[in-house]
Design a protein that fits this description.
Blueprint: H1 3-7, H2 10-13, H3 21-24, H4 59-69, E1 76-79, H5 81-93, E2 100-103, H6 110-117, E3 121-124, H7 136-140, E4 148-152, H8 164-173, E5 179-183, E6 205-210, E7 223-226, H9 229-238, H10 246-255, H11 258-283, E8 288-291, E9 298-303, H12 306-315, E10 321-322, E11 332-336, H13 340-352
Parallel strand pairs: 2-3, 2-4, 4-5, 5-6
Antiparallel strand pairs: 1-7, 6-7, 8-9, 9-11, 10-11
The structure holds pyridoxal-5'-phosphate.
Pyridoxal-5'-phosphate (PLP) binds at residues 81-83, 108, 152, 156, 183, 185, 210, 212, 218, 223.
């Protein structure tokens, strides 16, 4: 029995996937099986025919993304953003009021939120201050064995990478009992540090990806789950019948061409130049206590008084992400690296703050 079958939630094990018209397939010349309209939509150019449902899961996109990530297409599931991947994993493996996930705070809040929405217990193995490293000891004191462990690499909101051997050791520790999920939403900002190529040798390792960050495509809602084919097959049972809109798949395919990837690489370098400048300038300000090193397109900053800073900037139209509520992040704000003009406005405003 595969690990995915062994760990699948009882209610999912025998679930038969909804057989949508596209999923059943069939090659013909007159498709009368999906109650679509035969006519183009209002004011659509001739060649844009949106009246048909999209592919169940766009194969060309899985193949293209697989090539980009160094995996075969059967290791790739396209989702509506990485957030849908989190939701599918929790639903596929966790039984409400029975199973648990582990989160390593401070981290991305959606793991916690989605687990709670599905009545799945949340256990905590906090990252170790001051560097926010993975803390293997924290896992030894968990009350029960989890089904899923969510790691974020590089971590949001702290910006650091997790120790690679500690992550792999955790996967080894849970190899029969839980999936270790590495959320790599920001991995394009630190190429070379991905866990994707470890998946084939580590059956309980799952990687989440997105095109929302470095690829500048948050609006098209494209993410990916990278995992062994048994996991992908289980998640594909649960995903909505026609999850990926055609326009999104097309835009994503274009961004994954060689030219598209080179363009993304160039934007990343631009963001890094801006980030270095902002980091230096922030460190010169009296209101700033610490700027954390970041492998991403954002900076975590410890301010003297984050509430005052947040409010003052908001009054001037600059909106940051307040991290004050997160464990260990009192008086911290997260700053996304925008373009040079955005960042000059921020720095000018902070320099004038009293
Ligand atoms: C760590 C992390 N994972 C996942 C996501 C969600 O990405 P998507 O837009 O692909 O749903 C985000 C978005 O901010 C994120 O920061």
């Amino acid at each position: 029995m595969s690990l995915a079958d062994k760990l699948a939630a009882a209610q999912i094990k025998d679930l038969i996937a909804y057989q949508s018209a596209r999923r059943i397939g069939g090659i013909g010349n007159n498709y009368l099986n999906a109650n679509e309209s035969p006519y183009p939509a209002y004011e659509m150019p001739e060649q844009e025919t949106w009246q048909r449902y999209p592919d169940f899961l766009p194969n060309d996109l899985a193949t293209k993304y697989g090539l980009y990530a160094g995996l075969q297409s059967d290791y790739v599931l396209t989702t509506r953003g990485a957030d849908e991947g989190i939701d599918l994993l929790i639903r596929a493996f966790c039984e409400p009021k029975q199973d648990s996930i582990v989160i390593c705070q401070p981290t991305y809040a959606m793991y916690d939120f989605i687990a709670e929405a599905h009545q799945v217990e949340i256990q905590s193995a906090p990252l170790a201050a001051p560097e926010f490293d993975l803390d293997p000891k924290a896992f030894n004191s968990l009350a029960k064995t989890p089904k899923l462990v969510f790691l974020c690499h590089p971590n949001n909101p702290t910006g650091n990478l997790l120790n690679k051997s500690a992550v792999l050791a955790l996967a080894e520790q849970y190899k029969e009992e839980a999936f270790v999920i590495v959320d790599e939403a920001y991995i394009e900002f630190t190429p070379g540090d991905s866990f994707a190529t470890e998946i084939a040798n580590t059956p309980n390792l799952v990687v989440l990806r997105t095109m929302s960050k470095a690829f500048s495509l948050a609006a098209i809602r494209i993410g990916f789950v990278l995992a062994n084919p048994d996991v992908i097959a289980l998640l594909a049972k649960l995903i909505a019948p026609y999850p990926i809109p055609d326009p999104s798949a097309r835009i994503a395919l274009n961004a994954l061409t060689d030219m598209g990837v080179s363009y993304m690489d160039a934007q990343r370098e631009r963001i890094f130049v801006t980030k270095m400048h902002v980091e230096k300038k922030l460190n010169e300000l009296a209101c700033v206590k610490k700027v954390y090193p970041s492998a991403t397109n954002f900076l975590l900053v410890h301010f003297e008084d984050s509430q005052h800073t947040f409010d003052y900037l908001a009054e001037h139209g600059i909106i940051l992400r307040d991290q004050n509520h997160a464990p260990g992040l009192e008086n911290h704000l997260r700053i996304t690296i925008g373009d040079d003009a955005d960042m000059e406005q921020l720095l000018d405003c902070l320099a004038l703050m009293r």
